[in-house]
Amino acid sequence: MGPSVRKLYVQGKEINGAGINSSFAVHQDVDGRATDVALGWSVALGSPFTFATTLDMEYGSDIFGKRGILLGGIHGIVESLFRRYTENGMSEDDAYKNTVEGICGIMSKTIAS
Asked: Coiled-coil region(s) at which residues (predicted)?
């Protein structure tokens, strides 16, 4: 990942908005400057956007975002559900509807909470 981060940093000097976003978390701020220091590092690294986070938020983002989306977890679940429904005699239209509801219904309830 290091070379790609550097490439985007260099690009950011030439193209407004290029770069890799950063996040930071402050668990304990002894002298009241931790957020300023973290933001300073973000600017020095060339991040176009920086946001505050927590360990819990990073964990959730990693598990659901990276594993579930980027590495194909959701795709695999959808494909598996669709196959199971159609192999058990459900029409493709109904299998699609049930698969979408099986994935999006849970997410909709989670997001709405």
From this structure: none
Report residues of the chain scoring pLDDT below 70.
1-2, 5, 12-18, 106-113
- Residue that has been written with the tokens 């979408």 in this structure: 100
Q: Which residues on neighbouring strands pair with residue 52, listed in sequence order?
A: 24
| CA–CA dist 44, 39 (Å, integer) | 9
Tell if the pTM clears 0.85, that is, is over it: no
**By the 8 A CB rule, do 15 and 45 touch?**
no
Identity at 59, one-letter amino acid code: Y
Q: Which residue has the tokens 């193209």?
A: 15
Element (H, E) at 22: strand 22-24
